[in-house]
Amino acid sequence: MLGTGFLTLLFVIAVSIDSFGIGCMIGLKKIYLSFKGICGIALLSGLCYLCSASVGHLLLPYINPQLFEWLAALSFVGLGLFFIWSNKKSSDPKHDESIWTQPTRVLKSPEDADVDHSGGIHGKEVVLLGAALSLDTIGAGFSGVFIGLPPFYTAGLIILATCVMLYGGLKSGEKFSSKTEYFSMLPGILLIIIGLIKLV
Predict the structure, then answer these.
(1) Structural domain tally of the chain?
(2) Residue 184's pLDDT is what?
(3) How many Å apart are CA 133 and CA 121, to the nearest integer?
(4) Contact status, residue 52 vs residue 139, Cβ threshold 8 Å
(5) Quick check: is 65 in a domain?
(6) Residue 96: what pLDDT?
(7) CA torsion 92→95→97→99, rounded to 10°?
């Protein structure tokens, strides 16, 4: 059985690596995102994780302990398959529905976060991008509770990793732009690996 430390590291990478791919695409489009904005997005991801982990903790007393790891493993595999499926889906043509009601569109076209086409992501647009990148932490945070990941420590690592991934992606946009589709698949693959490790 692999240690909690290794699983926590693998978990944090799975949750935050989307930020690198998104950063690459934003950097390629020459869209400006300040370091303050990067920190705001990372904090939002950490808060979403803590909120979902808190809900998971409330449910722990009502679930048989023997079911914890099975439930966590199956939920990780399910999340991983969902992320892979959602990234493999062909993009729907753009329509008139507001980006504010469909933040997931930002994951397909990060430049859509620049709602006012100012060439930069500011204010509410930072919240929009942060919400899109935080979607996976909501489900993953709930699952993380069942394999015993420490919530505050894990949330702190997610904040740090998201900052590093986003900043690195922005700076590496042109170099890695042709490979960003692989980064969008990696979170799902890593979550499936975590689930399979817990099932063995």
Answers:
(1) 1
(2) 60
(3) 14
(4) yes
(5) yes
(6) 42
(7) 70
Mean pLDDT by 10 residues, the chain (200 residues): 73 83 78 88 92 85 67 70 64 48 57 67 79 77 80 93 91 63 62 67
Coil, strand, or helix at residue 120? strand
Q: What is the pLDDT of residue 51?
A: 92
User: How far does CA 44 lie from the centroid of its chain?
Assistant: 11
* pLDDT at residue 120, as a whole number: 77
Strand (E) positions, 26-124? none
Residues 6+ positions from 121 with CB-CB distance below 8 Å: 26, 31, 32, 33, 37, 113, 114, 129
Give yes or no for a contact between 170 and 20, defined as CB atoms under 8 angstroms apart: no
133 part of a folded domain:
yes
Neighbours of 79 (CB within 10 A): 22
CA distance 82 to 107: 14
Q: What is the pLDDT of residue 3?
A: 65
The phi and psi torsions of 33 (rounded to 5 degrees) equal -135, 115
Is the CB of residue 50 less than 8 Å from the CB of residue 141?
yes
Kindly state the tokens that stand for 149: 């990941």
What domain range is 59 assigned to?
Answer: 4-89+99-199
pLDDT at position 18 is 78
The per-residue pLDDT for 182 is 57
